[in-house]
Amino acid sequence: MTVVIPHPALRTPACELFGVRYPVVQTGMGWVSGPRLTSATSNAGGLGILASATMTYDELEAAIRETKSRTSSPIGVNLRADAPDAGKRIDLLAREGVRVASFALAPKQDLIKRCKDLGLVVVPSIGARRHAEKVAGWGADAVIVQGGEGGGHTGQVPTTVLLPQVVDAVDIPVIAAGGFFDGRGLVAALAYGAAGIAMGTRFLLTSDSAVSEAVKAVYLGKGVTDTVVTREVDGMPHRVLRTELVDALEKSHAAGRLVRSGRNALAFQKLSGTPWQDIVREGLAMKKNAEMTWSQVLMAANTPMLLKAAMVDGRPDLGVMASGQVVGVLDDLPSCAELLERIVTDADAVLERLTHA
What domains are there in the chain, each with its CATH number? Predict the structure, then answer.
């Protein structure tokens, strides 16, 4: 692997905070960000983040140890703040020497304090300025700001509007997500005041991603208008590839969606081995903290199984595929090392051109 000596402007506070060479983060994607992809990203000089929401505690412990066996560079783990065993998982991260605890939903103040007391770097993902202000006030070390272009759960505000709002509102490093895939985007994010970029779809479409080649081919065949933000997956806004299944979900009746959601809840409980009392406790937390209705809580059970069908089982016809709009400008499957080298080299060239324009 070629180690690129980056332009001084690319050595940002995020590099120091995460202990990485380049200010690039691979986001925690359920069923996608496993040990192979996470370690490949970290070995390439970025920050790889394991996705743990679909893992049991024992599976997470095994995944962390496998990742550490593949890389000596810093890694992160993405946690669900409303998980019944969130505290136990935080203790595991600290015990195993994980550098970063990231959260898909903003954690409460007590969880942030627990992480920091144990020496973890806390990085919540947020989609609104007020959420960034709140977690910064509670002691978060940085935030990942995802604009509406991003895949998975997303908001309506595009990155180019949301990012400067957050940068102006907080005094901690801000990592920009939603629409990034190359060195030009990295420089643009830095120009807005960000300390780096985070990417999901771009890392999903690498040779180090464990997603099947058939599913990757589906992604590579899509254009920038071939994604849709739907609430029919789990009751929350979710950007996914537009497919026949997604179109059918959009047209289905509420009663049918709830029956399917219940069926998927049973399937995920069996797959994960999570005790029913924990599932009920988690549902109550989701209802309270995310202000979700019981219907939305039940629909949330769709997400793990529908994503697994595509990402693990290789059946895009039976599952959903989270994706950012950036999918439409991607046409190859580089390794993580090739991707990071390309991004940094291109960013260097852009900075050089701007400096001597």
Answer: 8-213+329-355 (3.20.20.70), 223-311 (no CATH)
